Amino acid sequence: MVFLYRIAICLYFLIARIVSPFNKKVYFFVKGRKNWRKNLAGKINNNERYIWFHCASLGEFEQGRPVIEEIKKQFPECKIALTFFSPSGYEIRKNYNLADIVAYLPIDTKKNAHDFILLLNPEKVFFIKYEFWYFYISELKKRKIPLFIISAIFRKNQQFFKNTPWGKLYRKMLFNFEHIFVQDETSAQLLKSIELNNYTVAGDTRFDRVSAIASNSVNIPVIERFCGNAPLLVAGSTWKPDEELLTEYINYSKYTKFIIAPHEVSEININRLLQMLKIPAIRFSHIENAEIENFRVIVIDSIGLLSSVYRYGDVAYIGGGFGVGIHNILEAATFGLPVIFGPNYSKFKEAVDLISRGGAFTISNFNQLKSVTETLLYDNEASRKASENCLRYVTENIGSTEIIIKKISKVGSGF
To answer: Is 208 helix (H, G, I), strand (E, B) or coil?
Structure first.
């Protein structure tokens, strides 16, 4: 199976190289890995101690970030190496100020894994949530470098728990981790079912992250003027199916104001979205000299503002639920905003939890969106209860980072 895995990895990268001239994201994926040995060697100081964090993309980075920040706070002498698999993570966080090295993870081949780990020589390594790369994991085990996975969550239908050749390969990877920090008891029981006992139920580090975001959110006076006394719905990380539904409701609505932060902020997508709106709308980049009170919709055409915008909202709509899955609902919930999203949410524990608690609501069509939104905006008691449920849920789940730091400090030579 290792031979087939190797072939699959090589084919994946070959296809990426073929597609790269025609796809911007794939282009960055390929380009970012060129001459990686030379580039990495030029960044490393052999006299320093490196802690390596690897994330698939931006969402996983946000889960790893609280642990990075706590390590830098408690052990400032440690250097942080941060790698990404996807351009959507690397391109946004390549200048992250707490990381001393930021790079793409080279494709998972035996030689790449050997050379990367030899060059970096990390003291401890953290993979975030779902990252399982056979040769990197094997090489770390061979060199007796402690490898942890944090905020992991497992489901019964995953390969690790199947008695198939692929299942055995992936299960072998799990046994090479020094310790696994899982989000919930269900994940713990699944690991126990395969006789793996080096785990801790630590929860999801994103709760620590969103709590910090709420505490440090930025005032945006122009948003305050825009809202006035009108109710505000903030739509975050939306995709085309979300936007088609939202704009239908926005064009129907009479009093509500809206802020839309699409996942894709290209000129083409922003213009498409503005053309769908039949009421006064403006791009955020154009509001400086505008009479903002006269508009009912702001479209955010930049990255990094959404988490501070949520504080002004009354209700949040989170995108992705009509695609492969919803984006981060906790950034809104930490401000006490009831959250609405599409039907594809079952793989997201926080969504399932908040629906059961009455803080989140799923919709599939215009009538459902209209009904839920107007109840939350105009029924004060329903809104209050949903908001309290969100705030309570976030508060109850803070503390994962502290559990992780205490545990890993006892491994090897500590920090």
So the answer is: helix
